[in-house]
Design a protein that fits this description.
The complex is a heterodimer of chains A (335) and B (282). In chain A, 77% of the residues lie in helices and 1% in strands. With 335 residues, chain A is mainly alpha-helical. Chain A has a two-stranded antiparallel ribbon. The radius of gyration of chain A is 27 Å and the shape is flat. Classes of the chains: A mainly alpha (335), B mainly alpha (282). Chains A and B meet through helix 1, helix 2, helix 4, helix 5 and helix 6 of A and helix 1, helix 3, helix 4, helix 5 and helix 6 of B.
């Protein structure tokens, strides 16, 4: 607190005696100190929550990690009867379903962002953006229900076609052979894609919109087509933030639980085909946690949670680092 | 032989058509999912839903009263715990740590917490509140939801406070106002709409969360308002009923899903309306 500033205020308050004034000055500086430190402590508690989550998961998962060691990561057995647990099936399931999701979501989001920023008439921009963002507001349990009860039965009618056509391609054909059940890894990937599209698309749209018009217009003036501007001007300019947005979407997809639990099929074994049921880390925790009776079983599930947390932490940290510059430029635009 | 110009135009046309189709593809899913919840949910809504509790397996009738009440209790716990913590932490970031190195770190960690998988947060709540106490409880579910709400509130509070013009602060300090009084009486007031919007959006987000409740609040077939025991809640009931083979349970799940979606959309629209009404200034 600056002395001269305090004087100005005190001149107005003639009634106060000098003792009262100095007492008030002292108490207000104490209050300021407490306010600043108090809010600071709360902020650090919030930031420390991440660390606390990590520590508690390590403690709770220690029994499993200690019993199985590194083999926990590469064992594909998950057998509550013989009390042997390995995370491989679920790690693969998580990575594969998220990979399918990103393969679909990235091009779709790019198309949506391009449409909104370059093609759409002005009046259509915000309705379309709002509709796409609605996808993010729908709770994941609704995606799961819809996926299981509405989408999967429809999708199982398409699967014989996938078997016949994609399944016949050499090398990758084996991915698309399997019984037409409707649920499975591929279905989970598709529904995950729908869920992450709004996140990826909105970041892409934001960065496409802040690409300097001078850059775009000079390319147009040279006779470039809209696609050429997008491909050779907008995309190179926004590359970092676009990658950040993709990682953010990936972080969402990896940790998504309820929708995946409904439709991934919950089979605890690996299979080459994407049409076969599988399991992800999140889905096995959601399914089995309340049934886990032995402490090693429960500890293994918590260790799975730790693995998921570490994977998403790395992905999200990368995303945030890539997006730091975007935050700064958006800030600059606001002020 | 196609000229280079025609070829470029053609590539452009094809890619732009794809962009339009992708947008339609995105919109298609929103419409399909919302239409489904409307189509199955609306016919399943009746008065019993709000006056009767969840039925046992195989029984006819019943409603979702205990789940609605339980969900509201959980949301209340989350808001009571999450709002003050979120606003205070956001205040430190937005008032005291705008250009601070520590502030940047806290902001970074908070953003990661914002996107952390909700099931992991549920496991954390289990580890600190369910395991030590030995039983599932509504309180632990509320804490898990609060942990998801907090980063949302921190972020909006921080952003909204930073939008408050510096001249407002300088004017208050020039009059000799202590800093804490300036923040609580002036900048909080100026940013109140924005902060409120953040809280509403946070509540919208946690009201559909299921994963963190599976092993904290668990579920309860009966009506309960006891914070120290398992409590029924809408998302977990929807999960259980939708996965069940009973037709009336599935119908009730659709009704619950419809109500949840309407509730969440109302909150989102409400927050949009709040922002628009007060203009873009803060």
């Amino acid at each position: 607190m600056n002395g001269s500033e305090v004087m100005t205020a005190e001149n107005i308050e003639d009634a106060a005696t000098s003792e009262q004034k100095s007492a008030r000055r002292a108490s207000s500086s104490v209050a300021d100190f407490l306010f600043r430190k108090g809010t600071g402590v709360v902020a650090f508690i919030v930031a420390a929550a991440l660390l606390a989550i990590m520590v508690s998961l390590v403690i709770e998962g220690w029994e499993a990690l200690h019993t199985f060691g590194w083999k926990f990561l590469i064992t594909s057995t998950w057998d509550p009867v013989t009390n042997v647990y390995g995370a491989l099936v679920f790690i693969v399931g998580t990575l594969v379903s998220s990979a399918i999701a990103m393969l679909i979501a990235v091009p779709v989001s790019f198309g949506i962002a391009l449409f909104i920023s370059e093609l759409s008439p002005r009046w259509l921009r915000s309705p379309i953006s709002a509709l796409i963002e609605l996808l993010a507001a729908i709770p994941s349990i609704i995606y799961g229900m819809w996926g299981l009860l509405v989408f999967a039965p429809r999708f199982s009618q398409i699967e014989p076609w996938i078997n016949d056509h994609l399944g016949a391609i050499p090398w990758i054909g084996v991915l698309f052979q399997g019984p037409p059940m409707g649920i499975g890894m591929l279905t989970a990937g598709i529904v995950l894609a729908i869920m992450v599209i709004p996140f990826v698309a909105s970041i892409m749209r934001d960065v496409f919109m802040i690409t300097p018009p001078a850059l775009k217009e000079s390319a147009y003036a040279l006779g470039a087509t809209t696609w050429e501007v997008a491909r050779h001007v907008i995309l190179p300019f926004t590359r970092t933030a676009v990658t950040g947005g993709i990682f953010l979407g990936l972080g969402r997809a990896l940790g998504e639980t309820m929708a995946v639990t409904f439709i991934i099929g919950n089979a605890n074994n690996l299979s080459a085909s994407l049409l076969m049921p599988g399991s992800s880390i999140a889905s096995v925790i959601a399914n089995e946690f309340t049934e886990a009776t032995t402490s090693l079983y429960k500890s293994s599930l918590l260790a799975l949670g730790l693995i998921l947390f570490v994977i998403t932490l790395i992905v999200l940290a990368l995303a945030k680092l890539l997006l730091l510059r975007l935050d700064a430029s958006l800030e600059g635009k606001k002020s | 032989m196609m000229s280079l110009y025609t070829k470029r135009q053609l590539i452009n046309l094809i890619n732009m058509t794809i962009a339009v189709l992708m947008t339609l593809f995105g919109v298609f899913w929103v419409v399909w999912i919302l239409w489904t919840t409307l189509r199955y949910g609306l016919p399943a809504i009746n008065l019993h839903l709000f006056t009767q509790d969840t039925p046992p397996p195989g029984a006819e009738g019943g409603g979702l009263r205990n789940a609605f009440v339980g969900s509201l209790i959980l949301l209340a716990i989350a808001v009571v715990i999450g709002t003050p913590i979120g606003v205070l932490a956001g205040t430190w970031l937005g008032e005291f740590a705008v250009k601070h190195k520590l502030g940047a770190i806290v902001r970074f960690l908070n953003d990661i917490l914002l996107s952390a998988p909700s099931i992991v947060i549920g496991l954390f709540a289990y580890a600190i509140l369910v395991d030590p106490l030995g039983h599932f409880s509504a309180f632990s579910g509320g804490v898990a939801l609060a942990l998801i709400l907090i980063p949302v509130v921190v972020r909006t509070t921080d952003e909204m406070l930073r939008l408050v013009p510096g001249s407002l602060r300088e004017a208050a300090i020039a009059l000799g106002t202590p800093y804490w009084k300036m923040v609580t009486k002036i900048t909080w007031k100026a940013a109140s709409t924005g902060i409120l919007t953040g809280i509403i959006l946070g509540v919208a987000r946690i009201s559909g969360e299921t994963a963190p409740l599976l092993f904290t609040a668990l579920n309860n077939q009966y009506y309960s308002s006891d914070l120290w025991h398992p409590i029924a809640n809408l998302p977990v009931v929807i999960f259980q009923f939708a996965m069940s083979p009973y037709a009336n349970w599935q119908q009730m799940a659709w009704a619950g899903a419809f109500i949840a979606v309407v509730f969440i959309l109302a909150l989102s629209l409400g927050s949009r309306w709040l922002i628009n009404r007060n203009g873009p200034k803060v």
